[in-house]
Amino acid sequence: MNVFLYIVIFIIGTLFGSFYTLAVYRIPRKLDIVHTHSFCPKCGHKLGFFELIPIFSYIFLGGRCKKCKQKIRPRYLILEILSGLTFLAIAFALKLDVYNLNIEVISKFIFIALYLILIFLIAGIDKEERKIDKGVLYYGFAISCLYIIYLCIMGETSIYRYVMYLVALIILLILDCEKQINTAEVSYLYQVLMLIVIMLINTGIIPALGAILIVILAIGIVKGLYTLKNFLNKSKKESTNMKALYKFGFLLGIANIIIYIGELYFIYH
Ligand SMILES: [Zn+2]
Fold first, then answer.
1. Does residue 190 sit within a domain?
2. How far apart are alpha carbons 116 and 143 in whole angstroms?
3. Residue 62: helix, strand or coil by DSSP?
4. Which of 31, 109, 159, 187 could be a cystine partner for 26, CB 3.0 to 4.6 Å?
5. Structurally, how many domains does the chain consist of?
6. Residue range 163-172: mean pLDDT, rounded
7. What is the structure's pLDDT at 236?
8. Could you list the residue range(s) of the whole structural domain that residue 59 is in?
9. pTM
10. 129 Cα: distance to centroid of ligand 1 (angstroms)
11. Given pLDDT bands bounded at 50, 70 and 90, which one contains residue 6?
């Protein structure tokens, strides 16, 4: 029975994955993510029901659009599988068991799934465009409020800490809006800070601060190696692909989820 549950969870994960690929493509282009049917970006061919099934459709169609035979980037397939595996890892960490399901574990799983949507979208868009979408951050704000209400109902004792996070989030939001009004551009820094506060609310102190530490260390090591390489080559020009390093939304998101799954495993096992 448990095998069946885990298969269902994997399939749900891949469905979420196919939604992320669509949303990561559409949100920065300001396209509708709910009502418009999925289509091939090259010929506009609308995808039929069977073409919407994650993984299998990719394999059966040989990774090409049915109509124009344009190659579909394997990135979509990889993201769908990764999303399925992430869901599986969380179910495993939470020790989900058909014979021992309780409302607390189920609601925890649902909140994590809602949070994963946020992290996958932030990480995906940031990796592609190096920006954090404000609409996605508003979504993060909404699920954070929901989670805090849930914690209140469950009798969380340190609720004042969450209220402080919320205040910080609102201040950052105001600062960002003010900057947008004055300079007509959004602040990447404020948005990364908002993301960190959202991480603190939804995953707790260790996964949020641990992610910052790991990202700073990783960037420091890579930058150090580049500097050393440039020094040895006696060139002062900084390599152009260094900019790819500073995708904080992407890096923090990935690190945060990995540490969080690890922490859940230790709590529930
Ligand atoms: Zn096509």
1. no
2. 11
3. coil
4. 31
5. 1
6. 94
7. 56
8. 1-101
9. 0.89
10. 23
11. very high
